[in-house]
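Technical annex B. To support the medicinal chemistry partners, we prepared a structural model of the target in complex with NAP, based solely on the information shown next.
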Amino acid sequence: MKPIALVTGASSGIGKAIAKQIADHYHLIICGRRTSRLEALSKELNNKTQTLIGSFDVRDQSAVSHFIDTLPDEWQNISILINNAGNAHGMSYIHEGDIQDWDAMIDINVKGLLYVSRAVIPKMIKKQHGHIINLGSIAGTDVYPRGNVYNASKFAVDALTKGMRMDLNTHGIKVSEIKPGLVKTEFSEVRFKGDLEKAKETYLGYHPLQAQDIAECIAFMLSRPKHVNIGDMIVLPLAQASSTLLNKQQK
Ligand code: NAP
């Protein structure tokens, strides 16, 4: 029996690439709101591994805890939690910010991560074993203009990762974070509310990271020997030096 990994945000981008990358080694609980996409992914992985679909909004604490608490017996034993679900919503000056965007980022990126973690971690504590990988961002170490609340949500992920690692230190549970720079996914489409031109512009003039690049790094983190915990990993495209320095004339 393969160990079980739960991946949030598996319907798109980095989460989907992670599921595909680790499918040979884990049975997968793939989560997100867009069930038809998760069904398509499940079909795609059918010849590699068993999958279970978790259709819930991470903002809905009772839906999260109900799903995790009522998992079929054979899916209870979660060894790996990839807290990946999240997005940026909008990009405005602080005095012009949309309150709904702020709520979405705090509720999904911070509270959603907490709700899923709170439901899963007791299962790991019982076994004194597990590995949690949180999707931070360089936006969580390096603020940029009009990034304000998204930055704050990823700084929170960074703090929570460090706090989790301390609180779980005596329980044999690894806690890691990965902080990507610019990755070409649906991230910018969501941030710019479906404005495809603006989303496309984000990735022009240089070679951005692909979701697969991050998935490979996560597979590396997961495949280290028992005594090795990669606490943090910053991964940037060659053209990006920081949140605010991007070479858009890349040859
Ligand atoms: P993406 O392609 O837009 O994927 C976001 C995923 O999160 C989707 O699967 C989405 O699924 C899920 N999600 C969003 N809101 C949710 C909610 N309320 N409940 C449940 N699931 C939700 O973006 P991505 O680039 O792969 O982003 C994945 C993670 O990487 C995020 O945490 C993001 O902050 C981080 N990151 C991205 C970049 C980048 O440049 N792309 C850089 C650094 C960090 P549904 O819509 O089906 O629910």
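Notes passed to the chemistry partners:
The mean pLDDT is 98.
Residues 127 and 178 are 25 Å apart (CA to CA).
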